[in-house]
Amino acid sequence: MTAFGFCANGIAVPLWMRLVWRLYPGRALPAVVKKIALDQAFYAPFMMLTILGYTTVMKEIKNNSNNNSTSKSNNSISAGKLLDQYKKEVSSKGLDIWMTDCTVWPPLSLFMFLYVPKNLMITYINCITVCWNAFLSYTSWS
Prior knowledge:
mainly alpha; 0% strand; elongated
């Protein structure tokens, strides 16, 4: 999860924020609402699907290593098995994660886009993301 968080927050968030500000510059309410809508329509589902994919792969690696350490059989990880497991994860957890995202992030983003200086937005997001990632970790690994 640390590696995922580093890539998502260290790389994707700054690039995403730059794009959002380029598409809808300023702090006027119509621009802010568009930024939030764009975030919820594209970035949130993308990140939800990505985190579920990441945890699906990590779970399979963990299960495979546990099976190999307790038996002599060679349990390889197949793409078909991963895809099936991923589909199950998305169908069972995806909507709940996205709905929670839709209740948590829009008010926090509204505050950020209206009041947080642009040079502190990534720090603001990262502070909130500590708690958000704990929720994602708990939800995606359960």
